[in-house]
Specification:
heterodimer, A: 351 residues, alpha+beta, 60s Ribosomal Protein L30, Chain: A, Phosphoribosyl-aminoimidazole Synthetase, Chain A, domain 2, 2 domains, 7-stranded mixed sheet, 4-stranded mixed sheet, B: 370 residues, alpha/beta, Rossmann fold, 5-stranded parallel sheet, 17 helices, 11 strands, 39% helix, disordered C terminus
């Protein structure tokens, strides 16, 4: 300790370079208070967070609330087109949007690994703040814990979100009906390939960027324009194939999609071909599938195509009476096969 | 996408299917050797486009599937050794041995890494000088050159912590084993396009002549497979026995001489057991004595010997019959019931090239009329 620093016997701070997260940052003392003030409160800056109470409060309107939570453990923390911070905001906003809700408030829980660079933390928090502001939501409450080095992967983030569902709107799998059109909001697989390419150093997939984006604005406009949305689902882990299977089972219907019209970008197709992955199972973070009455499919597509996040929206299939297996795909050569759930993650092939 | 879209063109595929219908007069049984072709056939439903008289039989060309259980156990045991990093291509990790699979070992704390290229494994060895990096080298002739190259590089870099657990196998001896079986009913082969990209197809002349069986070197896209079948059926109907090349955009008669040379530098043919099929002379690769320092079977001889004799495969798994084309996956009593991708009895249910996995994934787990 240098001579010009005051001696403070009341709080035995560890000697620290203050450039990395220390266990004391989660210890309830001064370091933690400073971290909350300087990093989180400063970045998220809003009146509901400012009192630093145990929770945020606000008056409720009459109507229906939507409430969701999700945890983010992505590695690497930064990838082309986003980072764990923006992802944690978009992901929870999108879960609310899939309920038809206008997202209002988010919480943010951080599990930090001892040794994480404070610069990295600041970048991630700034990214969350920027994503939240851009989407018009506030991060109003939070929590921080620090775990021993080796017991985390730098940073894990949990966000929960509350949103308001417009009156008269009900978007649930059970409303899916035979005859509905199946719409996909854009090209599939970019997020999964972008993350894989940086995680594994795959240079051939170089210019693929994640599709991570908030979807509540396009969903809001679909609702406002009077489209009778039966169901929405964001196409995260497991991709389109898994989402369709889950929805078909939940709604007790069958589905048939046409491989040739499902949008997949050339770089993503190329990377998937090389690795032996099927883009229909690859993760997205800014794509959704919508089930709407066939008669409204074109109107819905027109709305979706006005938004950059869904500019490549496409009508990819239709809902049928229940059959087993529930999801069938018409192949590019005109034959049919099932589109099943995978038993686990897709693995790159041998040759 | 170039080299993909034109080979998945619906109109071209339909025209080829129509051509096959016009050529065929008698029933024929054709084996596609490679698991990649099997997956293409099942994924794109190509068999539905064929006349009933053309019967496709799936061959042994899934390297993961034919790896004997003893070698998988060796990999799992080495993974559990302290200080060892096991590298493998992805789809080997779910293959069950008698001691569980590599994913299970990873969950218990073993350091198991999926690599995308043998050079990644080499880099891992350079970055971890105090750990032993063992690569589970599985594949046919296609993936042997990069592993050989990695060994040559490791020697040049004087690495003492890099070795291969070699499970490489060769296609022609397996084709001969099938043809010389008294139960053989195969009348023509679609040879594996990527194996021939490396090896060429000179060595198939002798097989074609000896067993009077036409062979067409064939690619993997729907149009490739259908064109290969059309070429093969033309030969069969005309009574010709030739080795022809459908996959001309990738395969030459002599193959990739440089790749062959590096394989020959590092590996030599050896007796190999094939899962469910048995031992086939000169059907596998082993590391030559000049590179013995990079042979995990030698480096870890004492460790591996301490576990005693190799385990036996699950008698309920009929993968041997499936791999020889004698049993369709869904005709196996365990298919979809005792054997699923979540709880496989054998490798063909989990490998990305396994015939059982293809049927389960693309045709469903319900038994259907063949």
């Amino acid at each position: 300790m240098s001579n010009n620093q005051p001696f403070e016997p009341a709080c035995p701070l560890p000697t620290t370079d203050k450039k990395t997260v220390q266990l004391a940052h989660g210890g309830g003392g001064r370091l933690m208070r400073d971290l909350i003030q300087e990093v989180f409160v400063h970045a998220f800056d809003n009146a509901m967070l400012a009192p630093l109470h145990d929770g945020a409060t606000w008056p409720v309107e009459k109507g229906t609330l939507a409430f969701t939570t999700d945890s983010y453990v992505v590695h690497p923390l930064f990838f082309p087109g986003g980072d764990i911070g923006s992802l944690a905001v978009h992901g929870t906003i999108n879960d609310l949007a899939m309920c038809g809700a206008k997202p209002l408030y988010l919480s943010a829980g951080f599990i930090l690994e001892e040794g994480l660079s404070l610069d990295v933390l600041q970048q991630i928090v700034n990214s969350m703040a920027k994503a939240a502001r851009a989407a018009g939501v506030s991060i109003v409450t939070g929590d921080t814990k620090v775990v021993d080095r080796g017991k985390g992967d730098g940073i894990f983030i949990n966000t929960a979100g509350v949103g308001l569902v417009p009156s008269g709107i009900r978007i649930v799998p059970r409303l899916i009906q035979p005859g509905d059109a199946i719409l996909v909001s854009g090209d599939l697989g970019s997020h999964g390939v972008a993350v894989l390419s940086v995680r594994e150093g795959l240079t051939f997939a170089g210019d693929v960027t994640s599709d991570s984006a908030p979807l509540h604005q396009v969903v809001g406009e679909l609702i406002e324009s009077g489209i009778e949305i039966h169901c929405l689902r964001d196409l995260t882990r497991g991709g389109l194939a898994s989402a369709l299977n889950e929805l078909a089972v939940a709604a007790k219907v069958g589905m048939i999609v046409e491989e040739a019209v499902i949008p997949v970008s050339e770089p993503v197709r190329g990377a998937c071909e090389l690795l032996g992955l099927d883009p229909l199972y690859v993760a997205n973070e800014g794509r959704f599938v919508a089930m709407v009455p066939e008669s409204q499919a074109e109107a819905a597509l027109a709305v979706m195509r006005r938004h950059a996040v869904s500019g490549r929206a496409a009508h990819v299939g239709r809902v049928t009476e229940r059959h087993a297996p529930p999801v069938i795909i018409q192949t590019v050569v005109g034959t049919h096969r099932i589109l099943d759930l995978l038993s686990g993650e897709q693995l790159p092939r041998i040759c | 996408m170039k080299y993909v879209d034109e080979f998945r063109d619906r109109a071209v595929a339909s025209a080829l299917a129509e051509r096959i219908k016009q050529i065929v007069r008698r029933p024929w049984t054709i084996m596609e050797v490679c698991g990649g072709q099997t997956h293409s056939i099942v994924k794109f439903g190509l068999d539905e486009l064929l006349p009933e008289t053309v019967r496709l039989v799936h061959g042994p060309g899934c390297p993961v599937c034919v790896t004997p259980i003893g070698l998988i156990d060796d990999a799992v045991r080495l993974a559990r050794q302290p200080g060892v990093i096991i590298c493998s291509f992805g789809d080997m990790l779910r293959v069950p041995g008698s001691q569980g699979d590599l994913f299970g070992a990873k969950a218990e704390g073993a350091d198991v890494r999926i690599v995308y290229s043998p050079l990644d494994a080499l880099e891992l060895a350079r970055a971890n000088p105090n750990r032993q990096v063992v690569c589970f080298a599985v594949g046919f002739e296609t993936t042997a050159p990069p592993w050989a190259m990695a060994v040559v590089q490791a020697k040049a870099l004087k690495l003492t912590n890099f070795s291969l657990l070699v499970a490489h196998v060769l296609v022609p001896p397996a084709m001969e084993a099938i043809l010389s079986s008294p139960q053989n009913w195969i009348q023509g082969f679609l040879a594996a396009g990527h194996v021939c990209t490396v090896m060429g197809y000179e060595e198939y002349d002798a097989i074609a002549m000896r067993y009077r069986v036409p062979i067409v070197v064939t690619g993997f896209e729907p149009v490739d497979v259908l064109e290969g079948i059309a070429m093969l059926v033309s030969q069969l109907e005309a009574g010709r026995v030739e080795v022809e090349n459908q996959y001309v955009r990738s395969v030459s008669r002599e193959g990739n001489r440089q790749a062959q040379a590096i394989v020959d530098e590092v590996f030599e043919p050896a007796l190999r057991a094939w899962r469910g099929i048995g031992e086939i002379p000169r059907s596998g690769l082993q590391i030559r004595s000049t590179y013995t320092d990079f042979d995990a079977a030698v480096r870890f001889r004492d460790v591996l010997a301490s576990f005693g004799p190799a385990a036996q495969e699950d008698p309920e798994c009929q993968s041997g019959l499936v791999l020889q084309g004698l049993l369709k996956p869904m005709d196996c009593p365990a298919f979809g019931s005792k054997c699923t991708p979540e709880r496989p009895l054998g490798a063909p249910m989990v490998s990305s090239e396994g015939a059982c996995a293809a049927y389960y994934r693309y045709r469903g787990n319900v038994k259907r009329e063949a």
